[in-house]
Design a protein that fits this description.
The structure holds 2 protein chains of 2 kinds. By secondary structure, chain A is of the alpha/beta class. Chain A has helices spanning 46-53, 76-86, 102-113, 117-130, 146-159, 176-193, 204-209; strands spanning 2-13, 20-31, 35-39, 61-66, 69-70, 87-90, 164-168, 196-201, 212-217, 220-226. Chain B has helices at residues 3-11, 15-55, 79-86, 120-123, 140-149, 154-161, 171-178, 186-196, 214-220, 255-258, 266-272, 291-304, 315-318, 320-358, 360-368, 373-408, 415-423, 437-453, 455-462, 466-471, and strands at residues 58-62, 75-76, 91-106, 109-118, 136-137, 167-168, 210-213, 227-233, 239-250, 261-265, 278-279, 281-286, 310-314, 411-412, 429-430. The chains are: A alpha/beta, B alpha+beta.
Chain lengths: 231, 472
């Protein structure tokens, strides 16, 4: 079943005098349970594509349909609501809310969804335990290592029970051990819970784990291949 | 964890910035309160000097007296009218007076004086001249005697040398002028008081003598028991003249009055000016001095007074000069406050802008993951509100002891400034107003500025583009 469809998506930046075609005529579909890496050199349009997939940016032309909803046509609070209930985000710099503990960061999303307090607590605890941070529930981000913060970010992304998770260079700031740990967790979530992951990455270790690798060059998809993940 | 909690925690992320912003608000509120208290205190002081302790909050006059304050515009004041006025609920004191002018002479010295005929008993409820009686006077003889006795420390004697020819109504004012503690130096003050005692007594009901103001007495070089010659014009152009023994010297804080005032009993003044039972004014003090209380009483008294030639005026009507002085000073003060607020507004605004700039990326993140912009705006407003409240409450709190101290121990002005104020006819002190709603107003205005300073940043959040904010 298709979760995401991109139809002839283009993105042109007009900010300067020169028009920049960040994404050109991309047609893609993503299915439930995919573990996909979008790769390509810097400036190839990976982040722009991911931002459009996440409804953070609008395509100049074309359509993005997620679970039957034309995201590219949603605006304002409807778009924010859509993101809240359908998309999980993992950022390169973790981007946890610094004044909230690990548990509160995870609960934050559920609170905005209107989940009752007790359920929030139990789910946050369960999610943090699932990423190996059951003993760091009350730690603030500044008391956690980069790898731990990124695991909290994954737990936060999962908290809203999204249709898929977008991860923009999630391992870029992590050391080898933390990267392996994070990838194992994501792989497990993908395998056990069928969670769809879409990464943009430069990291070969992430590419190796992916089931599908999309190569983007100068805003154009030049290769889209499925592969057996390396163990 | 709700929005308030996040906002509160956000405050302490950058403790130094929060402290600096709250401090700037604290000082703004503190200075605004002190400035306002000083202004309102000075108005209170003016009103106390001129109204409460002399003219009364309400006066009954002949309808032409305000425009032409001469003896021709006096009115008959039977005892019955006074007693009826005294019976009105809310009336604190009813004081009939005769005010006229006379040339006062002794030996070769003459001066124009203001002669006031009073009912000695009734007047005690209003201007209370008995309290103004000079009881002590520091003269070279007094100091010589004190030196001789050798009971007073040298530094106090030295200070006393600077007070030669000063008159005092109490030992408290002597202590204040000597800048010594009244309680700790009671023993010395008693010795000084005993050495500097000045005779003199208050007028009795049938007294034919007069009380003379301190500076006038010094000008005329007179003392108790001396006789003054008063000459002037009485009712209907008659000649007014008389010899009056001095019973006491009175000291006015208001230097203008202290230079020219003579008290005599009402019957003596009526006789001096050939007024019969006429008076120039009936001064009335009230239990409720508020504007509302004053206007309500004015209406009540107007209903009581049957004579069409009489009028009932509030002090704001019969002392328009003072009212205009207060009004104009009030506007100037408000303009200064507005300037202070304006400067502080930009301080707060700068902080909010800096905060928004620093956290723009974070705002992008929280909106990206699903927080509505309105909720984010609430957090920002709450944060600024918290800083505002901390600053305002601290500002109010630190202003209280200052208000308390300077309300009860007003700052005494010196030098040219004192001279200017004394020339205006007021005692040269700067009391602060007591705690009142004006304090809350300063806080309210600052909180309003804090909220206003959020408008532009909130617009920025409203227009936030997630992808741009994430790149910031």
């Amino acid at each position: 079943m298709n979760v995401i469809e991109l139809k002839n998506v283009e993105k042109v930046y007009n900010d300067s005098e020169i028009k920049v075609h960040a994404v050109r005529g991309v047609d893609l579909t993503f299915e439930q349970g995919e573990f996909t890496a979008i790769v390509g050199p810097s400036g190839s349009g990976k982040t722009t594509l991911l931002n459009m997939l996440g409804g953070l940016d609008k395509p100049t032309s074309g359509e993005i349909i997620i679970g039957g909803t034309k995201v590219s046509e949603l605006k304002g609070s409807k778009l924010i609501d859509f993101r809240l209930h359908n998309i999980g985000f993992v950022f390169q710099s973790y981007n946890l809310i610094p004044v909230l503990s690990a548990k509160e960061n995870v609960e934050f999303i559920m609170e905005m969804q209107g989940v009752p307090s007790k359920q929030r607590y139990l789910r946050a605890k369960e999610l943090l335990e699932s990423v190996g941070l059951g003993d760091r529930l009350d730690s603030r981000p500044n008391k956690l290592s980069g790898g731990q913060q990124q695991r909290v970010a994954v737990a936060r992304a999962l908290a809203s029970k999204p249709k898929f998770i977008l991860a923009d260079e999630p391992t870029a700031n992590l050391d080898t051990k933390s990267t392996e740990n994070l990838l194992d967790i994501m792989e497990k979530l993908n395998h056990d819970a069928g969670m769809t992951f879409i990464f943009s990455t430069h990291d070969q270790r992430v590419v190796n784990k992916a089931h599908r690798v999309i190569l983007l060059e100068d805003g154009v998809v030049t290769s889209d291949e499925r592969q057996t993940p390396h163990q | 964890m709700n929005l308030l909690k996040i906002a509160w925690r956000n405050l302490w992320r950058n403790k130094r910035r929060t402290a600096i912003t709250a401090s700037s608000i604290l000082f703004a509120v503190f200075f605004a309160i002190i400035m306002r208290a000083q202004q309102l205190g000075s108005y209170g002081h003016m009103i106390k000097n001129a109204i409460e302790s002399y003219s009364g909050f309400i006066q009954i006059q002949h309808e032409n007296y305000q425009d032409d304050p001469s003896l021709e515009n006096t009115f008959d004041c039977p005892e019955e009218l006074i007693s009826n006025l005294e019976k009105v609920q809310g009336v604190k004191a009813v004081v009939p007076r005769v005010e006229t002018f006379a040339m006062t002479s002794t030996g070769t010295l003459t001066k124009g004086t203001l002669v006031i005929g009073i009912d000695p008993e009734k007047e005690q409820k209003l201007s209370n001249p008995e309290n103004l009686l000079v009881r002590y006077r520091i003269t070279p003889d007094v100091i010589a005697r004190l030196k001789e006795k050798n009971q007073i420390p040298k530094e106090i004697i030295d200070k006393l040398n600077g007070l030669i020819n000063n008159s005092y109504t109490s030992t408290g004012t002597i202590a204040m002028n000597l800048e010594i503690d009244k309680e700790l130096n009671k023993e010395y003050l008693d010795i000084i008081a005993s050495a500097s005692q000045f005779p003199g007594k208050y007028l009795t009901k049938d007294d034919i003598g007069v009380l003379v103001s301190d500076r006038l007495s010094k000008y005329l070089i007179i003392s108790i028991g001396d006789t003054l010659v008063l000459m002037g014009q009485g009712f209907h152009g008659s000649t007014a003249a008389g010899l009056y023994p001095v019973r006491g010297i009175v000291k006015f804080a208001n230097p203008e009055l202290d230079n020219k005032l003579i008290y005599m009993t009402l019957p003596v003044a009526q006789s001096f000016a050939s007024l019969g039972s006429n008076v120039t004014t009936i001064a009335i003090n009230l239990n409720d001095n508020s504007d509302e209380g004053m206007i309500a009483m004015q209406a009540t008294l107007k209903g009581m007074i049957l004579s069409k030639e009489l009028t009932v005026k509030t002090w704001k009507e019969f002392n328009k000069i003072l009212m205009q002085q207060i009004d104009s000073d009030n506007q100037t003060g408000k303009a200064f406050l507005a300037l202070l607020y304006f400067i502080i507004f930009f301080g707060i605004f700068g902080t909010v802008l800096m905060m928004i700039h620093e956290r723009y990326h974070e705002f992008g993140v929280v909106v990206s993951i699903g927080m509505k912009k309105t909720k984010l705006m609430f957090i920002i407003v709450f944060e600024m509100f918290f800083i505002g409240v901390i600053g305002v409450l601290s500002g109010m709190l630190i202003s209280l002891p200052v208000l308390y101290y300077y309300h009860f121990n007003p700052y005494r002005l010196t030098g040219d400034m004192a001279q200017i104020i004394e020339d205006m006819g007021f005692e040269a002190i700067m009391p602060l107003a007591w705690i009142d709603t004006y304090i809350l107003w300063q806080g309210f205005v600052v909180i309003l500025m804090v909220i206003l300073s959020c408008i532009y940043p909130l617009r920025k959040v409203m227009k936030l583009k997630e992808s741009e904010a994430l790149r910031a």
